[in-house]
Design goal:
single chain, 165 residues, Arc Repressor Mutant, subunit A, three-stranded antiparallel β-sheet, 4 helices, 6 strands
């Protein structure tokens, strides 16, 4: 566990450390899993998760599901130029790479293509998690409606009986 940042309570740092540890293990950080790691009262964990979201350290993906916010320097300007001789020049901020051969440029593209694929997979996973959560909520609601209908049918017809909408 790291030393708390100035102005941070120990519980806030423990919650942040728990979310970080879950990420390193490629696990989803839910309020329940964080609570299991941190211990203490669930209300404290919830409060610290909210504070970390407010501080921009975490983002809430869904109700009770959190993710670390990557803390990188602002992106630098980038450009690539194919020279008349077929070589490639890449500029990233103040750094210039001149004279990449077409083969080197293709290899760099393959290398960076993995990041594009990772982003696609991550976004698909988020969309699927969102849809699964919506479907679970709908199934739960329909279950409650079915129970209410079953109860109404068991009680028999009455002049005041109304079916749930």
């Amino acid at each position: 566990m790291t030393t708390p940042e100035p102005g941070k309570s120990n519980s806030t740092q423990r919650v942040l450390d728990a979310v970080t540890a879950l990420r390193h293990q490629e696990q989803i950080a839910t309020r329940e899993t964080v609570h299991v790691i941190v211990g203490g009262k669930m209300s404290v964990v919830d409060d610290r998760l909210r504070a970390l979201v407010d501080d921009g350290k975490l983002k809430r993906l869904l109700r009770g599901v959190y993710e670390l916010v990557d803390q990188f320097a602002p992106p630098r300007a980038m450009s690539g130029t194919i020279q008349d001789d077929g070589s490639v020049m890449l500029e990233i901020g103040d750094h210039v790479i001149k004279g990449l051969s077409p083969l080197e440029a293709r290899r760099a593209a393959r290398l960076l293509g993995g990041f594009a694929e990772d982003e696609r997979v991550i976004e698909n996973g988020r969309q699927h998690l969102f849809l699964a959560t919506q479907l679970a909520a709908q199934v739960e609601q329909q279950g409650r409606e079915i129970k209410a209908l079953q109860l109404a049918l068991k009680q028999g017809p009455s002049p005041q009986m109304s079916l749930p909408v």
